[in-house]
């Protein structure tokens, strides 16, 4: 028996087209390509962009660091903080001016990083803050309620278990405390925009696989972060790498730089203010061989705890951690994905 097949409606045939069934699925569903924070610069995946971004960031920092350090040394010599003989013999101490020069050079990495991203990747500066294209201050405030008390207990306990010097308030101490409070948050933010914001994501842009990109980006940014601290002790080198890697994980798990910056600022300010009051700031920058030891496992554990708390709190607060790739003026449009044929995105 032959089954009758009705003729297909065509223009001018006089046969009306059947009404669409509103309950039937569409023939194809286009979904915008999304990414985590660390993989967002894959929107412009030319290998040379990431390489050039890292090289230029390091070069600009080196130039600024030398220039500001020379200026600080000149001011210290003119004000009598130390003599030319002290300088040539290396018998100088950290002064408020040299601390200010260090912090300003690192703080400058914030605008340098976002401008390099804009120039090389065509992604506007606001997209370096988070996957939502803005710095989420409300999220920072909620996270501070968790991070700051935990870090205060950690730092307070560390000082109570260490030898304490007398607090002598003089002009130098007041100036050092002012520099720490006013510029250390900018220094910490500059390091995060430079390392986790530009270096991590530049290296991550080299690979299409998100997991591989995160691993490579974390290794590259963590290694540069550790080397940049000029530590000669293996324990300190390991600590700086763990510090950097944990903040890379934090940025990925929270969708932006807000949590890494908060942890970095809290750690540095709470450590440096007491040392400045006790005129021990020099000790913080002593990183020669033998300075560290197994006790560095405690701050390493704190770094990991900070990452875990941040990611957990982000999930509790439903913070956006994955979003569409940011718009780029140099990248070709990313093709949509047919989820009907390939299945849901994981």
Query: Please, how many helices?
Result: 12
Helix content: 55-70%
The rough form would be described as: globular
Count the beta strands: 4
Largest sheet: 2 strands, antiparallel
Strand/helix succession: EEHHHHHHHHHHHEEH
Distance between the termini: 48 Å
Mean pLDDT: 87
Number of domain units: 1
User: Which structural category do the helix and sheet elements fall into?
Assistant: mainly alpha
InterPro entries: Rce1/LyrA-like_dom
GO molecular function: endopeptidase activity; metallopeptidase activity
Keywords: Hydrolase, Membrane, Metalloprotease, Protease, Transmembrane, Transmembrane helix
Protein name: CPBP family intramembrane metalloprotease
Explained architecture:
Keywords: Hydrolase, Membrane, Metalloprotease, Protease, Transmembrane, Transmembrane helix. Residues 177-270 form the CAAX prenyl protease 2/Lysostaphin resistance protein A-like domain. InterPro entries: Rce1/LyrA-like_dom. It comes from Labedella populi. Residues 10-28 have a biased composition (Low complexity). The chain is built from 12 helices and 4 strands; from the N terminus they run ββαααααααααααββα. The two termini are 48 Å apart. It is 61% helix and 3% strand. The longest helix has 34 residues, at 171-204. The strands form 2 sheets. The chain has a two-stranded antiparallel sheet. It has a two-stranded antiparallel sheet with strand order 2-3. With 346 residues, it is mainly alpha-helical. The protein has one domain (35-324).
């Amino acid at each position: 028996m032959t089954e009758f097949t009705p003729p297909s409606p065509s223009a001018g045939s006089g046969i009306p087209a059947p009404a669409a069934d509103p309950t039937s699925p569409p023939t194809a569903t286009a979904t915008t390509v999304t990414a985590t924070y660390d993989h967002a610069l894959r929107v412009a995946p030319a290998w040379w962009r990431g390489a050039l971004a890292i090289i230029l960031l390091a070069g600009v920092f080196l130039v600024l660091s030398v220039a500001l350090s020379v200026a600080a040394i000149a001011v210290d010599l003119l004000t009598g903080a130390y003599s030319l003989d002290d300088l040539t013999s290396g018998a100088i101490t950290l002064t408020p001016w040299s601390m200010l020069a260090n912090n300003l050079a690192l703080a400058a990495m914030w605008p340098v990083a976002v401008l390099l991203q804009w120039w090389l990747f065509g992604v506007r500066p606001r997209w370096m803050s988070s996957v939502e294209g803005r710095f989420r201050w409300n999220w920072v405030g909620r996270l501070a309620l968790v991070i700051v008390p935990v870090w205060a207990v950690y730092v307070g306990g560390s000082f109570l278990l260490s030898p304490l010097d007398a607090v002598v308030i003089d002009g130098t101490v007041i100036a050092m405390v002012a520099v720490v409070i006013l510029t250390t948050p900018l220094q910490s933010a500059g390091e995060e925009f430079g390392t986790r914001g530009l270096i991590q994501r530049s290296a991550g842009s080299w690979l299409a696989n998100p997991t591989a990109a995160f691993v490579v980006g974390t290794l590259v940014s963590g290694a540069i972060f550790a080397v940049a601290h000029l530590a000669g002790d293996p324990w300190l080198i390991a600590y700086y790498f763990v510090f950097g890697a944990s903040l890379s994980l934090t940025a990925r798990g929270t969708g932006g730089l807000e949590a890494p910056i908060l942890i970095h600022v809290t750690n540095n300010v709470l450590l440096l203010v007491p040392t400045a009051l006790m005129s021990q700031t020099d000790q913080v920058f002593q990183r020669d061989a033998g300075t560290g030891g197994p006790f560095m496992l405690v701050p390493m554990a704190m770094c990991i705890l900070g990452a875990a708390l941040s990611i957990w709190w982000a999930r509790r607060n439903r913070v956006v951690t994955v979003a569409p790739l940011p718009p780029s003026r140099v990248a070709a449009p990313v093709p949509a994905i047919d989820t009907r044929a390939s299945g849901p995105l994981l």
